[in-house]
UniProtKB/TrEMBL annotation:
InterPro entries: FAD-bind_Monooxygenase_sf, FAD/NAD-bd_sf. This is NAD(P)/FAD-dependent oxidoreductase. Signal peptide: none annotated.
Length: 516
């Protein structure tokens, strides 16, 4: 019988978090690792989300690794295919291909307390690892609401992150469900080709103009020949966003100025007073994610578009029924109905209830989902009590409302690197387990700071909140603060775990018998 594969580190996922972890491991001199990816290529959310109009709402030069600058971004806000191509280049430049295990979806991870290692089951076999770095990301598993009658719909149904490129929308009656970041990009991209488009809007978003433009050849040559100019550009983009943080976290009333700009943006395209009223949010801007688009409102004003100011409540054959909503185009009350040939769900992802949590079994036999029941939390957004030598990238309260997640990912990679250094310094077979007291203290501090933020006081319900109304998603501070908090591991916050004596004795006996 062949020996089971064992690695020092197993990284789960190959998006920005997973590839960043892989690069950092190599830079730390660690080559005994694998990257387990359920799909057939790298890219994470930028591989999965290929819908028409898909693009990033963070400036390109800030939405890239500091250790892998890209002087050739074609636009100030890059599209999906350019970001995915960037991740493919990072994979090649840093020699990550040999570490990839594509089509290896993790089905279960169990902590072995005797051997102090993780047993990992995948769709292509099993392996063990000393440390697991979970970089599956919160925007991985699409959420489709349970709608009565949806199974009986005779047309096409798909989620924005599982776009069916073989299905031709031309001349079809299309229903888009949701008004989040994906929907406001999809609607203007498909509106010119469809016969009719009905947008089911449960809550209107705040939308600011998207200041996108082509980056000139002169700019790109300058960044290639003088790399520090790209660094300066990135620094300026970062600094501007750091200055905005206090308005979100301490003084939400200051955001009224931005609300006025959003209302002006709407008024330029939406002339119908009834439609404009239906598209105006009743909550403070920033409470939900602020969206960027310069063509969303013009698309909604077109004659083949109907906005329903309510969510989808029921499907009756090809008839879609709103939850007592009002069609802004018709101005009628009651349960609005619309006929559709295709339903596109732009309803987000399982963020506070990530499916991967069901597949991680810790030291006490509980799954991560059970440990997180009622309060998802992690020490410095990375480690969880009861799950030794397991850490997550983009964990609880590491999300951002106004800047680049790559900044947060790189901070967590610093923490991961020092975590592994501490294990080496401790020597031998050893694990680090986050102390419950440390996890609780960190979480109390985060939640105390959250009370003053726009996400708690802005008067909205968002995907930032869990089922108990707690914000377990967003970081209530600057990216600089988070980087300082994750610069190094404080061993006082951890329990140092050694193998049980009986297991150590058993290994000694086995070794002696083998020698005999």
């Amino acid at each position: 019988m062949g020996r089971q594969e064992h690695v020092r580190v197993a990284v789960i996922g190959s998006g920005f978090g997973g590839l960043g972890a892989a690069v950092r491991l190599r830079r730390e001199g660690i080559t005994d690792f694998v990257v387990l990816e359920r799909a057939g290529s790298v890219g994470g959310t930028w591989r999965d989300n290929s819908y028409p109009g898909c693009a990033c709402d963070v400036p390109s030069h800030l939405y890239s690794f500091s250790f892998a600058p890209n002087p050739d971004w074609p636009r100030t806000f890059s599209g999906q295919r350019h970001i995915r191509a960037y991740l493919e280049r990072v994979t090649d430049i840093f020699g990550l291909r040999p570490h990839l295990r594509l089509h290896h979806e993790v089905t279960m991870m169990r902590w072995d307390g005797d051997e102090l290692r993780w047993e990992i089951e995948t769709t292509r076999g099993t392996l063990t690892a000393d440390v697991v770095v979970s970089a599956t990301g919160p925007l991985s598993d699409p959420r489709i609401p349970e709608i009565p009658g949806l199974d009986s719909f005779p047309g096409k149904v798909f989620h924005s992150s599982r776009w069916d490129h073989d299905y031709d929308l031309c001349g079809k009656r299309v229903a888009v469900i949701g008004t989040g970041a994906s929907a406001i990009q999809i609607v203007p991209a498909i509106q010119p080709e469809v016969a009719g488009l009905t947008l089911f809007q449960r809550t209107p978003p705040w939308v600011l103009p998207r200041m996108d433009r082509e980056i000139t050849g002169v700019e790109r040559r300058l960044h290639r020949q003088l790399p520090f100019t790209g660094t300066v550009r990135r620094g300026l983009l970062w600094g501007m966003r750091e200055l905005q943080v206090s308005a979100f976290t301490k003084r939400p009333n200051q955001l009224g100025i931005i609300e006025s700009a959003a209302k002006r943006n709407m008024a330029r395209s939406i002339k119908d007073p009834a439609l404009r009223a239906g598209l105006t949010p009743s909550y403070r801007i920033g409470c939900k994610r602020i969206l960027l688009s310069s063509d969303y409102y013009p698309a909604l004003a077109q004659p083949n578009v109907d906005v329903v100011a309510s969510g989808l409540a029921e499907v009756r054959g090809s008839t879609l029924v709103a939850a007592g909503g009002t069609s802004q185009a018709e101005g009628s009350g009651g349960g609005t109905q619309a006929e559709a040939d295709v339903i596109i769900f732009g309803t987000g992802f399982h963020v506070t209830d990530m499916p991967i949590a069901e597949r991680v079994v810790g030291a006490d036999g509980r799954t991560l989902a059970e440990a997180w029941k009622g309060r998802m939390q992690a020490l410095r957004g990375a480690t969880v009590a009861g799950f030794p030598n397991w850490m997550t990238i983009i964990g609880p309260n590491t999300g951002l409302g106004n800047s680049s997640m790559i900044l947060m990912i790189e901070s967590q990679l610093n923490y991961m690197a020092d975590y592994l250094r501490q294990l080496d310094v401790l020597g031998g077979r050893v694990a680090l387990g986050a102390r419950p007291s440390a996890v609780n203290a960190w979480n109390r501090k985060v939640q105390d700071r959250m009370k003053r933020t726009v996400w708690s006081t802005g008067g909205c319900t968002s995907w930032y909140l869990d089922e108990n109304g707690r914000n377990t998603t967003i970081w209530p501070g600057t990216t600089g603060e988070f980087r300082r908090a994750t610069r190094e591991v404080d061993l006082m916050e951890y329990e140092v775990i050694r193998p049980p004596r009986k297991a150590a004795a058993a290994r000694s006996v086995d070794g002696a018998e083998g020698a005999a």
